[in-house]
Specification:
The structure holds two protein chains of two kinds.
Chain A: H1 2-8, H2 11-45, H3 65-76, H4 87-103, E1 111-114, E2 117-119, H5 128-148, H6 152-183, H7 188-194, E3 198-199, E4 204-205, H8 208-211, H9 213-226, H10 238-241, H11 251-276, H12 293-319, H13 327-356
Helix pairs in contact in A: 2-11, 2-12, 3-11, 4-5, 4-11, 5-6, 6-9, 6-13, 9-11, 9-13, 11-12
Chain B: H1 14-18, H2 20-38, E1 65-66, H3 81-85, E2 91-96, E3 106-113, H4 122-126, E4 132-133, E5 150-151, H5 153-158, H6 178-184
The chains are: A mainly alpha, B alpha+beta.
């Protein structure tokens, strides 16, 4: 028993366990379930019934078995490689997106630290810069899939995706500059702890959404564009370029693209929670001083998951509400509106910080 | 000729350029629908077809049936009216003498090839004895073999129970298989039964 505990407490082993737990118990299941939830929720928005046919005997579980049906279908479907495709690049392209989506969770804390133990895979100093680095890796997935498929549609989709993602990375960084200035760090744990302070006694928590309302809107817009979901889904414009850069994929590799989309959706939600909604901190919980440690941790995990889930829902709701931007409108919105606004946001934040200091 | 061009008023300005008021308006609508359907599904108009069936008007021309008299014998007197009027020639009748002397004439063979039938309803209107009707309410006939669509006399008479007519969820399951049909009466397909 002692030996097992010692092995577990080796930092590398501990990190591996944390990765496994966060990815296998949080990110992946939520992402998988969201593929079904997207179809189910969209049907509710549009007054439809939604998927409810997959069954085992009389059991349908209100469509829950469609998850298993989709998975089985993907696994048994033929993994085709188009004629003239660059085989190696074609085969590895789906995993760039998936790895980038999953790696987001490396720096996201899902509960407060207990002693030395942190509920976070790694708390590196660059913090959010790591997120920017990882999301730019995401571009490779789209570009490689587009260029290696030997298909004009896929090439156009890959071009659009790369142009859009590279553009919006700029505003994503600039929009977050305000957060760095307010909380004085790029380190995630410092930002989260900074949001545990209060204004006017104990009235309003200093959450990112209150300190940086414009930054919140800008960053969220940039992240939605970064995940290539509606209204910024020009890379997958079905009426123009069919499915875009993953047009030629089939079976499990196509599922990897889909899974990457939904895992990054969860990633966006977790990131928004961490940066703008106090992370794991339950507001006004510090007033209850005699709270047992385990209860605090449980409440923190519940709060984090709840806000994350709300944001997952919100992104899906947004997709079924807003019509798609044309591609030039996407770029116009980015360069002509978001870029000046994020610069204004930085300047205003700087002035406010200087005046208050 | 001068072309008529309708110029649309485009709303410009800061409100439109910000997108946010429009997005919030749209979200208000979709969220309303989402919440209402999450609890109760009141707005969903879909009919889950095989389990639920839409109400079919009693005037709908569905699958044919042969009616009976009160004493149980077929109303049909094999007058060939329906076979004559049928535009798609899907009815085949052979008249014969009935063993019971109270019945003058009756169809020994009364076949309808439902695959040829165009469901025009002329046979129903032509019938002087109200012997053939299309009021079964069976709107879809989906079988796996062509033989199943050859409805013989006894099948037309027995496969629909007028007493359950009021039941819109008429189950179309207990049809005799083609093997039983030939047992009930040899299906002639236009060829006289040997």
């Amino acid at each position: 028993m002692e030996i097992i505990l010692d092995i577990i407490m080796i930092p590398a082993v501990l990190a591996c366990i944390k990765i496994a737990v966060i990815i296998l118990l949080f990110a992946m299941p939520l992402g998988t379930v969201l593929t079904l939830m997207e179809r189910k929720w969209s049907s509710m928005i549009q007054d439809r019934v939604g998927p409810n046919r997959a069954n085992i005997g009389a059991f349908t579980g209100h469509g829950a078995l469609h998850l298993a049906a989709d998975g089985l279908k993907s696994i048994f479907k033929e993994d085709t490689i188009p004629k003239g495709a660059n085989g190696f690049l074609y085969l590895i392209a789906p995993f760039f997106g998936l790895i980038a989506a999953v790696a987001t969770f490396a720096i996201i804390p899902i509960a407060g630290p207990i002693g030395d133990f942190t509920f976070q895979v790694t708390d590196i100093n660059p913090g959010l810069l790591f997120i920017f680095a990882i999301t730019s890796l995401n571009v490779y997935g789209a570009v490689l899939a587009g260029t290696s498929s030997n298909s004009k549609f896929a090439l156009l989709g890959g071009t659009r995706a790369s142009a859009q993602m590279i553009s919006y990375e700029v505003f994503m960084g600039l929009a977050l500059m305000g957060i760095f200035m307010v909380y004085g760090s790029t380190r995630v744990s410092s930002i989260v702890d900074g949001q545990n302070e209060y204004w006017f006694g104990n009235l309003i928590p200093m959450w990112g959404i209150f300190t940086q309302p414009l930054g919140f809107i800008l960053f969220f817009t940039a992240l939605v564009a970064e995940t290539k979901r509606a209204p910024f889904d020009a890379p997958e414009g079905e009426s123009e370029i069919v499915a875009g850069y993953f047009l030629e994929y089939s079976g499990m590799r196509w599922s990897a693209f889909m899974l990457a989309e939904y895992v990054s959706l969860v990633g966006v939600a977790a990131l928004m929670t961490t940066l703008f909604f106090g992370g794991y901190h339950v507001p006004w919980l510090h007033l209850w001083e005699s709270a047992p440690q385990w209860l605090v941790t449980v409440l923190q995990i519940i709060k984090f998951s709840f806000v994350t889930l709300i944001f997952c829902w919100f992104q899906i709701q947004l997709r079924w509400t807003v019509p798609k931007f044309r591609f030039d409108q996407t770029m116009g919105l980015g360069w002509k509106k978001l870029l000046p606004l994020s610069l204004v946001n930085i300047i205003v934040t700087a002035f406010v910080i200087l005046t208050l200091a | 000729m001068e072309l008529k061009v309708k110029r649309m008023e485009r709303v410009d300005g800061i409100k439109e350029a910000m997108f946010l008021p429009g997005i919030i308006n749209g979200l208000r609508l979709t969220v309303k629908h989402f919440w209402r359907n999450l609890f109760g599904a009141r707005d969903v108009v879909t009919v889950n077809y095989p389990e639920e069936k839409r109400h079919v008007s009693h005037r709908w021309r569905g699958r044919h049936r042969l009616t009976r008299l009160d004493n149980g014998f077929l109303s049909c007197v094999a007058c060939y009216m329906c076979e004559t009027v049928c535009p798609s020639k899907c009815i085949h009748i052979e008249a014969g003498e009935h063993p019971d002397l109270s019945v003058e004439k009756y169809p020994v063979v009364f076949d309808i090839d439902e695959l040829r039938c165009v469901f025009c309803g002329l046979c129903v209107e032509a019938c002087p004895k109200d012997a053939i009707r299309m009021d079964t309410g069976i709107v879809s006939m989906a079988y796996t073999s062509r033989q199943t669509f050859d409805f013989t006399r006894d099948l037309l008479r027995d496969s629909y129970d007028p007493n359950t007519h009021s039941n819109p969820k008429y189950k179309d399951k207990d049809l005799p298989t083609p093997a039983n049909q030939t047992e009930a009466l040899p299906n002639s397909h236009g060829v006289p039964a040997s």
